[in-house]
């Protein structure tokens, strides 16, 4: 799981993204492959720190990341991402302003970055890359809405049950304290739910 000695060829990542978000010709895959930038992070390494500007959309090929912010001296987990998912700090990305969010690798992680400037330049010239860009943004917005609705409308046990359904790998791999923070509950409450006391 954490062996990142072999980097997946960029062509394979371009195909993965095309399968998931758009259809592409051979030439379009060439363009997408040329945009992708692989970056490895060690466990505990910061991918993005508060005050930096988010410059691109990141696709996790292997690994686990936590997106969080500080509030009243406490870290609040906003997103947990695993293999074959996307993450970005959307406000910083589009406003090109320093972010208040931080992103940390919770495992050895291999990320392929789609720099916004390169992606937008390609999207202007190519309708299928434009479609891929749009679909990625749509997915990100829907995920945010799903999480917001989960926090607003569901009971603590149902929040955890839904997370198990939506992101089973997150539940298996992320530390309990971060899962609890993401679900806006205490670690003690989450422990009771996991042991079946509140189910």
UniProtKB/TrEMBL annotation:
Domain Cyclic nucleotide-binding, by residue range, is 20-120
Pfam families cross-referenced by the UniProt entry: cNMP_binding
Family annotation (InterPro entries): cNMP-bd_dom, cNMP-bd_dom_sf, RmlC-like_jellyroll
Q: Which domain of life is it from?
A: Bacteria
Q: What SUPFAM superfamilies does its record include?
A: cAMP-binding domain-like (SSF51206)
- Any transmembrane segments, and where? none
Protein name stated in the entry:
Crp/Fnr family transcriptional regulator
**Organism (species):** Segatella copri
The record lists the lineage as:
Bacteria, Pseudomonadati, Bacteroidota, Bacteroidia, Bacteroidales
